[in-house]
Amino acid sequence: MSKMQQLNLWNDDGSLNDVRLPTAPGDPPAPMKTPESITGPTPAELECSNSIALRDTPNQGNPLLDGPPLAPPLPDAVAAGVFGLTEDGPIQPDDEEVRAMTEEHARELLAVLADLEVAEEGLRTGEDPRTGKTPKTPESRAKLAEFLERESQRLKTAYGDALAAFVQGFGEDATATLDLWVRKSVAGCDTCLGRYDPGHPWHYYHEGDAAPPIPVEQIEGNLDVGHHIERDLPKNRTKRLQRMHELLEQERRRVEEDRARYEDIVQRGAEALSRYDREIAHTSDEMARATALSLKYNHIRLGLSRVAWLEKHLGLRGALLMPTKTA
Domain residues for 4? Predict the structure, then answer.
């Protein structure tokens, strides 16, 4: 049996319908989701059925009101029966059907990408996005990190699979354009330039700010962020001080590791990234690089914030103590 890619699409009742699309010559064609079976799930249905449901989907002003970018189906895909077969031959989707299918794929991608950002934010902050709290014990923190890492990889795979399925019907250029639209929609900004924080991929991406990476020595922490450590510290003074010293050592080590990784990405670009990140999780080397830079920038900024807060409350003034202004 040849390798197949699977895209989960929606039935009328909000349940998932497995649609398999051929990825190798000779595979029997499998129809894409047809418009008559698409009613459009609510955000709640998307959240519950297709994601880890760690938080509500960000308020994006309903980007689907303007609609995602549309592209004609590939003639070869039509001939192969990707959009369905009848007694009279392959189905040629009309404009309304193309719009319905594209919007359905866009909804799927929006939900997955929003949840992916939640999972990655939890990995950066150490907070459980389902509760808004940081686990108190090393074991529970490790368990949370494993869960979020697993969910992050699962969601990246799901996003890549959804894009790959769209390629089968509409081609690589149309898929890259849809991916771009989805990422901008989740970011909450269509055309704004020069307005993305360095912690966002669009700060570096050529379709966004196209800004160069900030030199690693210029990345600063923020004491107002670091103070979140306090709520998870022991109340007993002796245990509290011991835990703060342990955390300080850990955070200093992590900051140095993150700085080294950031500089490696700055110098080598996408060559510093894994094949998975370059070919599966993202549609281009440029987006993979931009995402990696933003993630590592956030890691460094958060680590410096935590170091600064710990040094201050331990009466230390280390080299990593940064001013309190927001980076």
Answer: 1-190
Q: Same domain, yes or no, for 256 and 208?
A: yes
Per-residue b/e over 139-178, b at no fewer than 16 CB within 10 Å? Answer: eeeeebeebbeebbebbbebbbbbbbbbbbbbbeebbebb
Two tokens, residue 133: 């709290």
Count: domains in the chain: 2
Residue 8, pLDDT > 50, answer: no
Enter the pTM of the model. Answer: 0.50
* Residue 108 main-chain phi, psi, to 5 deg: -60, -50
Considering just the CA atoms, what is the radius of gyration of the chain in Å? 23
Residues 99-131: tens digit of each pLDDT: 888 988 888 888 888 888 888 888 877 888 888
Which of 146, 166, 190 is the last residue in one of the domains? 190
Is the domain of 141 the same as that of 214?
A: no
Q: Using H for helix, E for strand and C for coil, what is the string for 124-136?
A: HHCCECCCCECCC
